[in-house]
Amino acid sequence: MRNLLLLPLFVFFWFASSAQGGKVTESLTFSFKSGSKMNYSVYLPEDYATSQRSYPVVYLLHGFSDDETGWIQFGQANQIMDKGIREGRIPACILIIPDGKVTWYCNSYDRKNLWEDNFINEFIPFVEKEFRIRAKKEYRAIAGLSMGGYGALKLSMRHTDLFTCCVALSSATFSDKEIVDQKDAEYDNYFGNIYGNALKGDARLTDAWKANNPLHLIHDVPLDKLKSVKYWIDCGDDDFLFNGNSLLHIEMRQLGIPHEYRVRDGAHQWSYWRSGLDTGLEYIGAGFHR
After folding, report:
1. Domain range for residue 47?
2. Low-confidence ranges of the chain (pLDDT < 50)
């Protein structure tokens, strides 16, 4: 009888220990050679501490005005990973979440902020030595929401040799017309420090704008290189960014660039991105498999 009474406790503690999940470490700091610093957060799958294997990696980018903690705090990225791994839908992989501040993950037009160069040339090599990461294109993906979705698209297009897969949720992709017609205060607030300050009308279509805009990159980057990356584009039908995502889908289809395009019921909000990340990570995981 006593053993029967102890059984529920045993089952409870066994379930609790087996469902602990991966490890999250937030707001680590990396110092660049220039002296600037960047915070980042890391998710390590549950078996990382007990295995000797190396893992695929997903660089997960946050939205405008957020930071390296947003995808964990509001996006529940760690819980999504834990559940997907337990269910066998998502392979065990490492998430790296860098702080992009409001840089749009770009080098600024005046070269005062070199976020992209620092990320590509220093940060990625560092974390892929710091953690047991399989440092090859076929095991490296990038994803993000809003500004981060834009960043994921443009970084994967500008560096097709680095990333095998890109997942862009509610990507902040704008057409030339949208940027030309944007109100002055909005343009200066969001883009002035990145593409050029106090510009109006067609003057906003600078070389910096074109060099970082996915709608231009799909025409400027050789098609064979673009086709080496798997793209997943997902934007809600009530999202204010629907136009740019739709145009990107149309132009990629006309150019014959393979990609998956999803329009679901939803707006520019965390509930949409949480469900989108779950499906997006499944898509990335399928790409990691051989």
Report:
1. 22-179+207-288
2. 1-2, 4-18
